[in-house]
Amino acid sequence: MGGVLALTGCGDGSDGLATTSGSVTTAPVDSATSGSAATLMSTTPNTAWSTDPQRADASDDARLTVSGLRVGGQDGYDRVVYELGGTGVPGWSVRYVDLAVQEGSGDVIPVAGEAILEVLITGSGYPFDTGVAEYDGPNPLPGGGSELVTEARISGVFEGTTQAFIGLESGGHPFTVSTLSDPTRLVVDIEH
């Protein structure tokens, strides 16, 4: 596991993005504007920007439900944040795909944009398993305030995995994946 790094941000002080009623406003990460800090727990061995698939395993006690979704622009990259409630640390698999195909049904889901990142959050549970109300905001969530993200969409939970998709204006952009704590979040950053 990588080292622990303290990040500070404006907005809500936790991931550099501010939200209002499910919509998105941008807020750059800036240590001068916030007194609170979030802990970045890198659970992937390589946090370098890459277009290659990235993955990490969930903790054994992970039972998490996506309770929030945010999209915003930062200096040099766009950020998509999945807020999670429940127990444990999520795992993930993030990769570029040609089509957004829903797990379980095999249905193709329309995603705006020229490229698609599939985000699989492992260690997921249904609200009745975790006691956490699931995200009920806009789905898809428009990528307003971002340079590349057209939309972020949650497909659903299937066999312990939450499937989501990020539509992008164009493909081939390197990305990184990390987790934050207090509250637990999965963060996908896409380089401009």
What does this structure look like?
With 192 residues, the chain is mainly β. It has one helix and 14 strands. Strand 13 and strand 14 form a beta hairpin. The longest helix has 4 residues. It is globular. The N terminus is likely disordered.
Strand residue percentage: over 45%
Radius of gyration: 15 Å
Please tally the β strands and state the result: 14
What composes the largest sheet? 6 strands, antiparallel
- Give the neighbour order of strands across the main sheet: 1-4-13-14-7-6
Question: Helix and strand string, N-terminal first?
Answer: EEEEEEEEEHEEEEE
Average per-residue pLDDT, rounded, comes to 82
Low-confidence parts: 1-13, 18-46
Number of helices: 1
Structural class: mainly beta
Shape: globular
